[in-house]
Structures are given as structure tokens and as C-alpha cells.
Amino acid sequence: MKIMWAITGAGHLLKESIEVMEELSQKHTITIILSNAGLEVIQKYGYLNKLQEIKEKNNENNIITEEEEKYSYPLSGKITHEKYDYIIVSPTTANTTAKIVHGIADTLVTNVVAQSGKGQIPLIVVPVDQKEGIITTTIPPYIKKDLCKRCPFCKAKVICPQKAINPPYIDSTKCIGCMKCHDCCIYDALITDEKIELYIRKIDAENSRKLEKIENIKTVFNPKDIMEKII
Ligand SMILES: Cc1cc2nc3c(=O)[nH]c(=O)nc-3n(C[C@H](O)[C@H](O)[C@H](O)COP(=O)(O)O)c2cc1C
After folding, report:
1. Atom of ligand 1 nearest to the CA of 109
2. What is the value of pTM for the model shown?
């Protein structure tokens, strides 16, 4: 089967989404598309190499970024005749979910969603903001300023291949989440796997529920359940 998998800029359910994508890539061709925020967030969580590995499993696999596609998103126009069997959007940010339910198509991912409806290609969407209330999610690496001693020979700074660490800061535009700095700081100032609680707003949870009412869209709340929807 030929599958297009869109990733938007959500850290929540990102790891779980990539695990399922990897499983599907054992048997199917995957075209990965990334929103601008999707690319940035993937870098921050350190999954770009994993996507590259998935791409290299099959000559027909591909990774397409929003930046390459500006501004009329020609890729979205091609999806009907390139005969994708499924289009999956996972994880889907609150932002992209809101745009989909209001029929807005002004990014690569929202254009692909709109075109999938026009071409009647089955679309599976995994929204991240599902139920109003508190969720737990992992955040990208950062430095705790009160614990950082600004050591002149900071091991994390030296080891960072991106030169992203300048204690007490990590430049999040340079960090690619490779985790080479993990366990480098003897003062435990460098945090690489912190979980935080976030409040899901009512409007975002409501938008996720509205997805189900849109023709052509199947909403799934756990990336693992995508497997059951693919026949
Ligand atoms: C590290 C990081 C993690 C994020 N995680 C989420 C998330 O889990 N859910 C969400 O809705 N937005 C999240 N965002 C915010 C989105 O990336 C932002 O709203 C962006 O504009 C979404 O654009 P897109 O929908 O085109 O991908 C995160 C941003 C950053 C920097």
C-alpha cells in the first residue's frame, strides 16, 4: 500500500506515532510530510534520524517538508492521481485540528487534508488534544539555571555537535535532540527527559471531537489504533 503520513508540530504522541509509522514501513511505502513546526519539533525531540532511517527502507519512500512546497502546495494537488491508499495525520496539533474543522487549507498538511476529501482518499487523523483537562507530556532538553554552575569547561557544551549549548541556555533552534548531552552535567542542571502537566483547553478538545463529523475522516485517539483502520 502507498501511505502518506503527515506530522505536525506536536511533541505529544510523537514518539508513539513514529513507532507505528516504523511498523507500517516494514510492509508499505511511506511518504512523510512535515509541517514547518513538525520539522522543528521533531528536531527538538531527536527523531529526525529515525525518520531518515524509515525513508531509506524503500526507494519509493520520501520526506517532504513544508518549506520545499511553498506556497501553492503542488504536492497536495498530486495526491489524487498518485493514488495514495491512506493519508494519516499523526500527531495533529490543536492548531491543525482547528484549521481542519473550519475547512482552512493554508499549510502543506491542511492542503493535503482538503485534497484528500476531494479525491476521496481515506484520511486518519490523531488529534493530540482529546479531552479537556490535565495531560502529562515530555518536554525537550533544557538547563535549570539555578543548578547550572556555568563551568568554564562544560562537558555538555563540548560534546554538543550542534553547538547549541551555551550554559545556562540551550538554543532550541540549533538543538536536534540527539541526547549526547544526557548525563553530562554532574550538577544535574541539564534535564533531558522531564515530564510536565499541561491543561487541554475546552475549545481544543471540542475541535478534536468535531473531526469525526467531517466526511472522509476517521479519528483515532491512540496512534496504535491506526493499524486496525488500515485494511
Ligand atoms: C517542543 C514543542 C512541542 C509542542 N507540542 C505541542 C503539542 O503537543 N500539541 C500542540 O497542539 N502544539 C504543540 N506545540 C506548538 C505547535 O508546534 C504550534 O502551535 C505550531 O504553530 C503548530 O503548527 P502546525 O499545526 O502547522 O504543525 C509544540 C511546540 C514546541 C516548540
Report:
1. 26
2. 0.90
